[in-house]
Amino acid sequence: MFRFALLGSGSSGNATLITSATTKILIDDGFSLRQIQNRLSTLGETLDGLNGIFITHEHSDHVSGIGVLGRKKAVPVFMTQGTKENLPPVVGNVPRIECFEAGESITVGDLTVQSFSVSHDAADPVSFTISSAHAKLGFATDFGHPSQLVRARLTGSHALILEANYCPDLLRKGPYPPQIQQRIRGRNGHMSNQDMTRLLDDLLHDQLRTVVLVHLSENNNRPDLVQKMAAQVLHGHPAQLYIAEQDKPTPFFEVWS
Q: How far is it, in rounded angstroms, from Cα 52 to Cα 115?
């Protein structure tokens, strides 16, 4: 068994803490060091014992904090070569970047992190599954197309973190210009609510315990709408459903088989 919490999720910053009895990692860090520390404090956690940071892609809401944190804690920061070559200047020096190829697995302590490619407008974006002692967390956000590879990698997860970025109707009627709307709804953009529900339906199984929906757009989505659509898919299924927010952490969720 291990556990996870979203420290915040949205266009202003993303980070996910995953801990086991012996290991502590972050997926992404788009927050300042002070923000990370404050958000961890609300969960009764600190950065002490951090073993590594895994990066999905180079957009600033996922990496803006990794330079300061990497320098302070001297932990390895794992990313693809394409991500490394396209880090924004705000990141600064990252002392211990360790590159991997999409599809590789990396073991840190008692956690195994399996990477897989996703379709997003970044250099070499990936998502992950995290496993320990037969328990599996599927993590998939910032991608525009739920490919067969995504489905295959997430299959059998006991907990899921899935993107539900936008409602097509709200996007169409919203403030964004046409070119930005096209970017969001394109195959290299973000997941719509409808795509999320189809993917979730494909991934349902008896041992799915938790579903956390993430990266909701403040302008093009509504938590109540996402909650209703996902609940319809989960109708009669015992998995708990939670909507992550930008401004505060989720509680901890346990992952067990």
A: 15
pTM, rounded to two decimals: 0.97
Give Cβ neighbours of residue 159 (< 8 Å, ≥ 6 apart).
4, 136, 137, 138, 208, 209, 210, 211, 212, 253, 255
Q: Side chain identity at 119, as an amino acid letter?
A: S
Q: What is the pLDDT of residues 29-80, one digit of tens each?
A: 999 999 999 999 999 999 999 999 999 999 999 999 999 999 999 999 999 9
Residue in the block written with tokens 């964004």 = 176
Residue burial 126-145, b: 16+ Cβ < 10 Å; e: rest: bbbbbbbeebbbbbbbbbbe
The overall average pLDDT reported for the chain is 97
Distances (CA, A) of 150 to 47, 95, 230: 30, 31, 19
Q: Which residues contact 48 (CB under 8 A, 6 or more apart)?
A: none
Domain with 198 in it: 2-255
| Calpha distance 50→27 (Å, rounded) | 12
Domain CATH number, residue 119: 3.60.15.10
Considering its fold, how many domains does the chain have in total? 1
Closest CA to 208 of 135, 149, 121: 135
